[in-house]
User: What shape does this take?
Amino acid sequence: MSIYTHKFLVVIAILTMTSDLSIEYSFPDGFMFGASTAAYQIEGAWNEDGKGESIWDRLVHSRPESVADGSNGDIACDSYHKYKEDVALIKGLNAKFYRFSISWTRIAPTGEMHKLNPKGIEYYNRLINEVLANNIEPMVTMYHWDLPQYLQDLGGWTNSIMANYFEEYAKVLFSNFGDRVKWWITINEPMQTCRGYSMQMYAPYLKLDKTGYYLAGHTQLLAHSKAYHLYNEMFRDKQKGKISISINANMYLSKNGSSKIDQDAAERANQFELGWFAHPIFKGDYPPVMRQWVDRKNKEIGRAWSTLPKFTEEEIKLIHGSADFFALNHYTSWHASHGKDLNPYCNSDAEYIGSFDDETWMGSILFWLKVVPEGLHKLLVWIKNEYNNPPLIITENGFVDDGRINDLDRIHYIKTYLNATLQAIHEDKCNIIGYIYWTLLDNFEWLDGYGYHFGIVSVDFNDSKRPRTPKASYHFFKSVIDTKKLDGQ
Ligand code: GBH
Assistant: This one.
């Protein structure tokens, strides 16, 4: 596409913006703009240069029918070979941050740290150096769901020994890359990891119900805190970086606004999702409402113990305070009302019914993604009040469509969600320091395959060269980064 077509698309996009932004706020100086990716979703080269087998490799090869279109990430965007093009795209956005993840099985094929794979370490050195050479800061996710299969055979995240393995892995990453990487995310969306153990939503594709669900969460919190303390003890003085964990959360809004019982249900839903991981880290231990309700549910069925494991006093202290900033992944909002839901996406222990029945909420091609920018605004204020206004980076936020280049709905989404962010900053004094869009490239969308596109850059998966084409939203996002405003030109 020519540069003129691009400009034309942007002009059209800006003219057709549906929402009128009443007040023209600007993003503060130094606000961190960027885009995000994940290793398994973009790299390909699944068995190249000594890489070992991860739980995703195992799942897509042994049960291809579990992926909507029978596809896999064997080649994906081929970023393993084309990373320079990806970095150039971040550079072209004028974004200062590139968030990507490291594939554990490239660093150590079985996950065990006495058997490192030098070629995997070299790859990430090349990528990090390329990022820095372009005056971009790397933000590195250590774990975005691709556990080494060998560690899964030991029980994966349901085995607390995984916290030790993760700590050793983190040590190798800090030692090799920490001289240049100053922003670390230990784990991406621990709650989704848990769903891979409880309800076959991701690899390892197990159905261990609540037992597997809460155990996997418990181990990840311990793993995260061990990595954090290791950094403090061995690396922080010298490397001076920052660490957090990306917690994903819908915003649950009371279905019948003023009904106390629905308000309580929405609050419970928020505590069972975001609070599950944020409360231990920012306040100490699991949210009291979660402890009470899960324990009671277990008693009711006659179980002598609670599926929600308990931390020791010492563990509570180790986990509390183990984040230098709040990293939030947010896409959408739900309504919640009191009741028992059969919807597997709602935690039955919390007794809320989740729904998206508000006709004013624009939809997308995925049932779960509605455009509710006011939900983000409310969530940011909720986090400010609940956790004492920590510095916060939105580490993911994104919209899905069918892959069109002239992606006006995505522009609308980004614009309205950034507007909500600006309102939270200026009207509510929320301490928000960055926004990282999910995702740079159309990619392998886990069990949904290749039919669902979140990228601001299109990738032609029918062409072995995997050519990239920036979409209208890419140019729109660039104009926001350049002007620090939503309608500046
Ligand atoms: C992100 O997770 C991931 O980090 C990223 O890898 C992925 O590509 C991106 O989303 C797009 O899907 O539980 O009822 O809401 C976002 C969290 C988890 C939200 C699964 C949607 C499905 C149905 N997502 N969830 S529901």
About this structure: The pocket of GBH is lined by residues 38, 188-189, 192, 248, 329, 331, 345, 368, 396, 438, 445, 454 (CB under 6 Å).
